[in-house]
């Protein structure tokens, strides 16, 4: 039911979300900044963030793979990388309370974007849509996203639809100059008749949604 149109290649993204022990968050971030170059020699990191609002002691990182065979080869290489295992994995695992991962594709009408400059904040919004997949809710959802883009206050980075994990889940990443800029933009958007109409049509297919304000880590390509 969750299968629908997607891009015409095999590229996918693995979304990893870790809950870090509250007393160990600073130590974990320092380890990431110091040793994560060992990990990124094996595959492409899209972004790595820590949650500032909407969650606490949580990190989110997104990895790009050419196909599933590529991911398998990378995981095998990581398991045999003594530097990675010894300098990061072994000391980092005791700092982590919980790990979660999903496999997702970019929706076919979205290309992965970049912020216009460094120094902003990212909003990660998760929509749990009704079963039926993009064939049911895709057009209405796209219209709601485009309505927000057209207001001009925010920059779309990516829209991902899960393939493995909780199905009919869509993750949307936005970039804003600051939390205050985002707040002012949202206020204006909610008074825009075009946004109101598009959102009203889209929420017919929505079960729930949640969001987090994310701050990029030093090692993150998206800053």
From TrEMBL:
Single GO cellular component term: mitochondrion
Entry superkingdom: Eukaryota
Domain NIPSNAP: 13-111, 122-221
Cited Pfam families: NIPSNAP (PF07978)
Biological process annotations from GO: mitophagy
InterPro entries: Dimeric_a/b-barrel (IPR011008), NIPSNAP (IPR012577), NipSnap_domain (IPR051557)
PANTHER family registered for this protein in UniProt: NIPSNAP-RELATED (PTHR21017), PROTEIN NIPSNAP HOMOLOG 3B (PTHR21017:SF19)
Family: Belongs to the NipSnap family.
UniProt-recorded name of the protein: NPS3A protein
Natural source organism: Ciccaba nigrolineata
